[in-house]
Amino acid sequence: MSLTKVERTIITSMWGKVSTQADSIGTEALERLFTSYPQTKTYFPHFDLHPGSAQLRAHGSKVVAAVGDAVKSIDNISGALSKLSELHAYILRVDPVNFKLLSHCLLVTLDTRFPADFTAEAHAAWDKFLSVVSSVLTEKYR
Amino acid sequence: MVHFTAEEKSAVTSLWGKVNVEEAGGEALGRLLVVYPWTQRFFDSFGNLSSASAIMGNPKVKAHGKKVLTSFGDAVKNMDNLKGAFAKLSELHCDKLHVDPENFRLLGNVLVIILASHFGREFTPDMQAAWQKLVSGVANALSHKYH
Question: Domains in chain B, ordered, with CATH?
Fold first, then answer.
């Protein structure tokens, strides 16, 4: 599965707006993940997960920065996220099902903040893009 | 069986009261067909589904979306007995429509995204969690009679 030219354009052009709220988007997406899917908290026993915690904010930033890296290298997401892919495969080993859950929460977060931009086509492009990112992050699992 | 707290029930019903079911239904079904094109397999008789704008403007999609979401309204009224409320529909989706239950999960998530779109910041993480629980309960209720 790879992104069409139109899909890449939708993503890269929206990213300008999105990146201005990058940190809070990341934090909110994680908050939504932990609230809707409490089982995902099992990957963060070492974190203070209260809304607004410094750790949550820092981690949210990290996550969205990585998404940003994928956007900036949208023609070679595999290359851009290669190190992260290894990290997830060998160290973090987050079960693949959770990438869908976080992707969904990222979409919801983007949608609440940019409803006018989040047309059906943009929704499809983002869903596909996050699905590609998820595949890259799990491609070295076995 | 899924159990809803009083807060969750009130969060769901208060939001639902503000939803334009006809509009949201068409939007939800349309987006399902756009974002997950393989779901079009159930709708060969719907005519032009060749592009996002064709799908979103298709009158059969809008009509069917309204039907589906109206039925979803029954879920909101029967949160304590989703399996009972959807028993007949479950049999229909299995025996006559032959729909893979995974599609119920996909549609449920599309509905959540549409609510997020309409309600913006009002669609808080807690609000989302209550709705995720409901759409998941509906998906399970609709698959309950599958055999």
Answer: 6-146 (1.10.490.10)
Asked if this assembly's ipTM is beyond 0.85, the reply is no
Contacts of A37 in chain B (CB under 8 A): 132
Contacts of B57 in chain A (CB under 8 A): none
**What is the number of alpha carbons within 13 Å of residue A50 lying toward its C-beta?**
3
Pick from A28, A36, A49, A114 the residue to mutate for testing the B interface (most B CBs within 10 Å).
Answer: A36
A106 CB-near residues (< 8 Å, 6+ apart): A25, A29, A67, A130
Instruction: Please name the residue that has the structure tokens 């899909």.
Output: A7
The shortest C-alpha distance from A113 to chain B (Å) reads 6
- Contacts (Cβ under 8 Å, ≥6 apart) of B67: B25
Given B31, B56, B112, which is nearest A108 (Cβ)? Answer: B112
- How would you write the pLDDT of chain B (147 residues) with one tens digit per residue? 789 999 999 999 999 999 999 999 999 999 999 999 989 989 999 999 999 999 999 999 999 999 999 999 999 999 999 999 999 999 999 889 988 888 999 999 999 999 999 999 999 999 999 999 999 999 999 999 998
Partner A contacted by B34 (CB < 8 A): yes
Verdict on whether the full-model pTM lies above 0.80: yes
Candidates B34, B56, B121; nearest CB to A112 = B121
Q: What is the CATH number of domain A5-138?
A: 1.10.490.10
Which amino acid is located at B96 in the chain?
K
